Amino acid sequence: MKEIQALLDVTLPFATELLEKYGEFYPIAAAMQGDGSIMHIGSFDGNEYPTAEKLIEDLKEVFRESTKLIAGVILFDVNVINPEIGEPVDAITAWVESADMDTAFFFYHPYARDEKGQLSFKKGWLAVKEKEVFER
User: Fold this and answer.
1) Residue 67 has pLDDT above 90, yes or no
2) Domain presence at residue 136
3) How many domains are contained in the chain?
């Protein structure tokens, strides 16, 4: 799980910066190689403005195609129902998966913007998902 934390330490501050500056962001991704090095991952299929869903799938495909990667994260901005309050909230969502884990996860980091545009983060939660990329 420490490889996931290292990847989140790289990507979450960048996603937060983009959100503060632009109010939104396209999905961003990073991966860890077997030697522990971290690399940012991108994908371009010729479409200047792909949907977030398409870009997320393309990024997962990049992960699948590499035999050197052991873990990956994709961060994206969503509006999702918070299970504790039963209401929709904005959240930075992190899809995380590692060869060392039995399952994948979505970590939800809900946020609110004050009248000055500053972000504040609320208590997050996670959802367990089936693995899609990194097989054991």
Assistant:
1) no
2) no
3) 1
